[in-house]
Amino acid sequence: MVVYRRANRQYVAMSEKEVWDFLDSRNKLFVGFTREDGFPHVSPLWFCIENRRIYLRTHDYKTKTRLAKTGKACCVIDDGFLYRELRGVIVWGKSRVLTDEKTIERVNKKLDKKYEKQQWSSGEMPPGWVAERKREKRAFIEIIPERIDSWDNSKV
Fold first, then answer.
1. Residue 53 in contact with residue 144, Cβ under 8 Å?
2. What SS3 state is found at 99?
3. Which of 70, 105, 119, 146 has an alpha carbon 20 to 30 Å from 128's alpha carbon atom?
4. Rounded to whole angstroms, how far apart are CA atoms 131 and 20?
């Protein structure tokens, strides 16, 4: 069961629906995993939402893929400039690297569709990058939320 809370006493929390609508409307998620030395490893990533779970696509050789196997992740998205516009969501959850091919295919299609206008075509990339991308193996990470904190200052 996911616990939903306000981020702190001065804020007003989003409803569950508002949390998921907000997350689904964003393009970049900051995801943190704990390194072996205790320092956080944080990366901005493209992502998608499905059944109130967060899915990430990266490469199998990346640090975040190895760290996702530890089973813990923290994600954050915020928005707004003026104080009365600030809103955001922090998600703490269990992370795992996906191995089920059907889930990977479904998530990959969803990510391709979400970011189709932001992707470079092969003709726009340097030739070396195109060759490198063809050799790279993708990894997919699932984050299952356990606790979600949120704030929406427009409600104050």
1. yes
2. coil
3. 105
4. 37
Neighbouring C-alpha atoms within 13 Å toward the C-beta of 74: 9
Strands 138-152 and 3-6 turn out to be parallel
CA distance 29 to 119: 17
What's the burial of 88, exposed, middle or buried (CB within 10 Å: 0-12/13-18/19+)? buried
> Helix, strand, coil % (nearest 5) of the chain?
30, 40, 30
Residue 118 backbone dihedrals phi, psi, to 5 degrees: -100, -10
Answer whether 97's CB lies under 8 Å from 62's CB. Answer: no
Task: Tell me the pLDDT tens digit for each residue of 18-34.
Answer: 999 999 999 999 999 99
The answer to whether the beta carbons of residues 32 and 73 sit under 8 Å apart is: yes
Quickly tell me which residue has 């907000």 as its tokens: 22
Please, what CATH class does the domain formed by 3-155 belong to? mainly beta
∠ Cα 53 144 104 (to 5°) = 60
Enter the pTM of the model.
0.90
Instruction: Quote the CA–CA distance of 75 and 143 in Å, as a whole number.
Output: 9
- The whole-number average pLDDT for the span 58-62 is 91
